[in-house]
Amino acid sequence: MLRELNVHILPAEGSGPAQTVLLAHGYGCDQSLWREVAQALPQARRVLFDWPGAGGSDPDAYDAGRHASLDGYADDLLALMAALDLHDAVVVGHSVAGTIAAIAAAREPGRFGQLVMVAPSPCFINDPPGYEGGFDRPQLEALIDALADGQAAWSRAVAPVVMGNPDRPELSDQLADSFCAMDPAIALRWARATFLTDIRALVPRVNVPCLVLQCQSDALAPMAVGDWLAAHLPVSRQVSLQATGHCPHVSAPAEVAHVLSHWMGWRG
Q1: Does residue 167 sit within a domain?
Q2: Res. 32: pLDDT tops 80
Q3: How confident is residue 1, by pLDDT bands cut at 50, 70 and 90?
Q4: Domain tally for the chain?
Q5: Catalytic sites, residue numbers
Q6: pLDDT (0 to 100) of residue 209
Q7: Is residue 137 part of a domain?
Q8: Is the pTM value of this prediction over 0.85?
Q9: Is the pLDDT of residue 63 over 70?
Q10: Which of the two ends of the chain, N or C, has the fewest CB atoms closer than 10 A to its terminal CB?
Q11: How far, in Å, CA of 136 to CA of 140, rounded?
């Protein structure tokens, strides 16, 4: 499993027992986007990896049938945690990785000391009057259709919206390059699973301490989503970052690392 998911482990600096922090990247990305956050957490044992079909993962680790749903990715996360013999890890998931980790935590809560959900969304689809996900289903279908029509054009158009921070175009370029690096068929299949999955019914069964980190001006996950999660997770805290956009670990890694350092020992 370590080879299949291109796992890299950064040992903790200093003496004494160290907490393990597993950093999981979001849709269309790879572990490199966590680089600056990982470097800013030297007190922890940091585990970075690539989801099947992304980054430097083994091509044979991806299965079109199993990975058509987020459950398949949750299988991979639990297998990785078992391979590393993790039982009290802090799992930090960006965007859809937070959703995947929530599915895994509902299955095997004993492996999680804490789940940190960065810019999360249990459901991107609006469900009035009680839930504002940010999008109507036709909007998401159109987004997915546009990806099917042309990955490169889609990536260049979507990345600036996702990243935000228009005064720092190099960040959007980095994200667009990451989107373009994916196999088009995998990118499309993962997009469907990401944007059309609804785990709201599962959220009350995530019985681990959860920290919800939200950003200002996030085009994909409005503040109402974080409010909903905080109200429905059994044990949770909600932190509103100063960072803007959907990728604070890229645009504001120092702030994200500072918040993680402050909350890593929290157990509810």
Answers
A1: no
A2: yes
A3: low
A4: 1
A5: 95, 218, 246
A6: 96
A7: no
A8: yes
A9: yes
A10: C
A11: 7
